[in-house]
Amino acid sequence: MIDFILTNSYIILVFLAVLTVLVFFHELGHYAVARWNRVRVEVFSVGFGPEIFGYTDRAGTRWKFSAIPLGGYVKMFGENTTPGSVEGGEELSASERDVAFHLKSVSQRSAIVFAGPAANFILSIVLFAFLFVFVGQPFTSPQIGKVVPDSAAAEAGLLPGDIFLEVDGRQIERFEDVQQVVVLNLGQPMKIIVDRGGVEMDLTAVPKIGERKDRSGNIHRFGLLGVQSIGRDQVQHDPFTALWRSVVETGRLTVGTLKALGQMIAGDRDVKELGGPIKIAKISHEFALMGIDSLVWLIALLSINLGLLNLFPVPMLDGGHLMFYAFEAVTGRPLGERAQEIGLRIGLALVISLMVFVTINDLIHP
């Protein structure tokens, strides 16, 4: 019983630590750009609900940790007022008008809102760069060491010694690049260009579909080509190279995440792969046990997902606000208060529905 309590307490602590890092940097993005544009930030909170502890800085911002540690927010002066409304402008003093969020230009408000997701992508880039400098980046030669008999690779005509140059339109530098492309391909033909003894060969392969169970018993489908590399290595980079490669890695993971989501929408991938807080907590615990470098990699990956999620054009999310601002930029006037209110209600319903779905998913498929 004691071991059960200690184990689960550790899982919860790791999860909260990971979530706090992600939320803090997301909100820090909003805060930094808001202050850059001379918007008064009233509250910077990690968590929701009653304040546990905090302090007020010289600029009047209340920095605090709140009781419900599942998210966070930055409260800016005037952000809940419709831009251009009489009530939101004429009753304010000159000094208040100068620091009110809703009286800033469309570009300034858009920059402040976009800064949250952008901070998550920047965090991922920094974390990957840290790993690539101090731990190394997995870097395996793109040369084929072995072709599995009766595999998609064998049927396509790939041979040991072939060097991958391009797979499905993506330039290949290392064997890991091939894996990232193939794993998301669920049985669709893809063009492969290899170097065979100095001659470029154009081939077409149709990856076979494999399935595996994770530790929770969930089934995950993925593409299988059927080739093995000649060996695996970890290459440490200098800071500038690491930074560039971390940008590339973040971009590739972003595209891969969007492709996997598209496959779920199309029905090619099981929505059971979606996870909520419970699944993220378990995964965080597993990666923490594997070492600090694995946990840092997971935080970078989750940060990408958080940035992407917030950019979806759903009211209540940053992407929804950006959608409203795009309408204002095109028409020259903000969306009406009634329309915004309806949109926010729909967005809230969608967000709550998603949270309920992934939580039920976690409980049904623990």
List keywords for this structure.
alpha+beta, Pdz3 Domain, four-stranded antiparallel beta sheet, two-stranded antiparallel ribbon, 10 helices, 12 strands, 51% helix
Question: How would you characterize this protein structure?
Answer:
By secondary structure, the chain is of the alpha+beta class. It folds into 2 domains: 2-134 and 301-364, no CATH class; 140-232, PDZ domain (Pdz3 Domain). It has 10 helices and 12 strands. The chain has helices at 2-36, 94-99, 106-134, 152-156, 175-182, 239-266, 277-290, 292-311, 318-331, 337-364, and strands at 41-56, 62-76, 137-138, 144-147, 163-167, 170-171, 190-196, 199-205, 208-213, 219-224, 227-229, 234-235. A hairpin with a 2-residue loop joins β5 (163-167) and β6. α1 crosses α3 and α3 (106-134) packs antiparallel against α8 (292-311). The longest helix is centred in the N-terminal third of the chain and has 35 residues, at 2-36. It starts with a helix and ends with a helix. The model has no long low-confidence stretch (mean pLDDT 87).
Q: What is the helix/strand order?
A: HEEHHEEHEEHEEEEEEHHHHH
How many discrete domains? Answer: 2
From the N-terminal CA to the C-terminal CA, the straight-line distance is 20 Å
Coarse structural class: alpha+beta
Q: So what's the overall shape? A: elongated
* Poorly predicted ranges: none
Q: Going across the biggest sheet, name each strand in turn.
A: 6-5-7-8
Mean pLDDT: 87
